[in-house]
Amino acid sequence: MTFFTQRDQQLCVEGVPLERIADACATPCYIYSRAALESAYRAYDDALAQRDHLVCYAVKANSNLAVLNVFARLGSGFDIVSGGELARVLKAGGDPQKIVFSGVGKTAAEMQAALAAGILCFNVESESELARLNKVAADAGKIAPVSLRVNPDVDAQTHPYIATGLKESKFGVPFEDALRLYGAAAGMPNLRVCGIDCHIGSQLTEIPPFVAALQKLLGLVDQLASAGIKISHIDIGGGLGIRYRDETPPPVADYINALGACLGNRAQKILCEPGRSLVGNTGILLTRVEYLKHGEHRNFAVVDAAMNDLMRPALYDAWHDIQPVHARRGTSRRYEIVGPVCESGDFLGRDRELNLAEGDLLAIMSAGAYGMSMSSNYNTRPRAAEVMVAGNEFHIVRSRETFDQLIATEKNMP
Ligand code: LLP
Predict the structure, then answer these.
(1) Would you say the CB of residue 198 lies under 6 angstroms from ligand 1?
(2) Start-end of H helices in 264-307
(3) 141 CA → ligand 1 middle, Å
(4) Kind plus residue range of the DSSP H or E element containing 13
């Protein structure tokens, strides 16, 4: 089912024409479809229905409170990587007992906050972190539930910036050390070993690397059982890719079924941490053409969104489809779609065949994941508004930042 469709010669999100949103909130503006979020979540929840499971949405992909709230209402768990994400999940009504805490650099203060909230599990990424967590838990008079993020040394075949499962990456504990570290964790009085997890990378469009990683993990689970260390949940990580252009990622059900075949009839609870595949194709970035510059070599459409709003093209050379909100008849030209930021890397799309006029609205597609959550104030640009569409209604779920908010914590010299 598609939630972004042309209706009455205009692009709509569910039942709402994009022009209506632009009139109400101006541009640039992120727009999400609630029905699309729900549908993406159900694809995972349904595929895992035969097993004891928990889908832990990776908050970093899109941390807007309303997005988190939509998932919380569906019973989702959450994968967090900071104290800030913990606070967001709690504020959005997420159940602390469904939170897993990943990340290589958890501070003592973040550990304290997560222990106080009573989270499901800390996904520990180093030997030093085990020791710190044991101490923080002892000081708080608590027992911390832990899982080790094991680095299976599997090539995820994705963009090098978002591959995380190779030996040389900073993530997780080396596969060869895992057994010894589980032994150490089991011996620490304020830790309780409960799980195992891995994450090998993001935007994976093939199943085999996931299977290879899980098989290595399962071998370890068996070795741990022989050593008397019981693992009660297996967290298979996140990373399933989406279609931006012509990628053909497998359907969620195929991915889960392939992993299910490896798991056989193991009794452990299955956790997963998808981010992009839950939100990526549920949101767009709406922008307006400010100026057209037709040149000898290139044509530029200068729009009011920029690399600070959507960093992915500048950072990863990522391709996002760009659709006019109102399709025009007549001759098209090839355009560089660029923002107002003073960098040549400030492009949202290159060499796009479009028929444009100044003032036109454009939708940058597949912008729900790692769009707003990676945005910045570069060039003193207030961050965009965010809107959630639900049926024929829409709600502003984050107002556009004002200049005063942007400088609220700064001061002149005395
Ligand atoms: N779990 C952990 C521990 C992670 O590090 C990540 C993503 C996820 C889950 C979710 O992975 P996903 O299902 O979204 O692939 N900014 C980049 C993506 C960075 C991904 C980082 N880790 C981008 O825009 O492509």
Answers:
(1) no
(2) 276-279
(3) 33
(4) strand 10-13
The DSSP output letter for 163 is: B
370 lines ligand 1 (CB under 6 A): yes
Q: Give the DSSP per-residue string, 190-232.
A: TEEEEEEE---BSSB--SHHHHHHHHHHHHHHHHHHHTT----
Provide mean pLDDT across the span 7-33.
96
| Residue 367, both tokens | 């912008």
Does residue 262 sit in the same domain as residue 165? yes
In a domain, 411, yes or no: no
Residue 168, pLDDT > 60, answer: yes
Phi–psi pair at 220, nearest 5 degrees: -65, -40
Judge if 166 and 263 occupy the same domain: yes
Closest Cα partner for 82 from 60, 97, 115?
Answer: 60
Q: Give the whole-angstrom CA distance, residue 347 versus residue 337.
A: 6
Average pLDDT over residues 343-362: 97
Q: Are residues 77 and 205 in the same domain?
A: yes
Assess whether 28 and 49 both reside in one domain: no
User: Residue 1: what pLDDT?
Assistant: 55
